[in-house]
Amino acid sequence: MRTRYRMERRALGGLVLTAVPGARIAVAQSLDRVSFHTNWRAQAEQGGYYQAVAAGIYRRYGIECELRQGGPQLDPVRLMLMGRVDMIMSNGFQALTYVRENVPALTIAAMMQKDPQVLMTHAGNGIGSFEDMRGKPILVGSGGRVTYWPFLKSRFGFTDAQVRPYTFNLQPFLLDRTAIQQGFLSSEPLSAIQAGATPRVFLIADAGYENYQTTIDLQRSFLDNRPDVVQRFVSASIEGWTQYMRGQDIAAANRLIIRDNPEMTEERIAYAIRVMNEAGIVISGDATTMGVGAMTDARWERFYHTMRDAGVYPPGLDVRRAYDLRFVNQRVGL
Length: 334
Known about the structure:
This protein is α/β, with parallel strands linked by helices and about 325 residues long. The chain folds into 3 domains: about 1-30, no CATH class; about 35-115 and about 210-320, D-Maltodextrin-Binding Protein, domain 2 (3-Layer(aba) Sandwich); about 115-205, 3-Layer(aba) Sandwich (D-Maltodextrin-Binding Protein, domain 2), CATH 3.40.190.10. The protein is about 35% helix and about 20% strand. Strand 8, helix 5 and strand 9 form a beta-alpha-beta unit.
């Protein structure tokens, strides 16, 4: 039975957690501290974790969550393996890489059913599908060349001769109406709109790219030693994400995001939430019936086979070492 907690204020102003009366559970006298590192600066794409902090969901589950934002000079995987952080935000590629490199880490939840990676071009330039991009120059970052690009090559016949370096500068795109570049559904298209362009966006996930995104990863030793803490952290995170995507009292979470990343704006946050909902980034597929964070053996197998056939991973990888389904698929938040 999952532990349930209630906050009680005592005489000296301190807060303790006690079990709900009548429940057959242990009493927690203090909050379990968990540190969680995101993979980039604070933004709506991490909003569910911020909601779980702002709305007191982690604390209700007996967790004191230290939420650390990522950045260009930070390597969350390395920090996790060094024991500097308990859990990190990652993706399905990283989980399969753990297995390939025999790293004792794995994924325990996937908050995004669809990877928000896109290719975008200008509306009205004759490009209406991925097939239309075959043979045309495409601005691709270094990370994309070893993740989604092999998929596009395998699926649509793209070639490396098409690749042009993407430096996360929008100006080349704005100056060339024939340009095609990578982006995140919730970010670069809005920047293009704000600059006066009319982008047409193609979500790579909708072409069969089944990479799980915004995962929760941790070392196996943490999982083995603290499975109850892991379950409570995952369930609280799922509640946070469910509330955030529903727009359920999220103003405080958005303030935390802007506090941590002053470059973020309410407009950008609102746009990101809207397009993520429209595209089913968080709530679609298995998440609609099993809850946010859902994962399945079948999908992990399909993704591995797709990327194996694209030459990214070797044959014979033991995919089931990449993840653990025990902490998700429990309809939390539904």
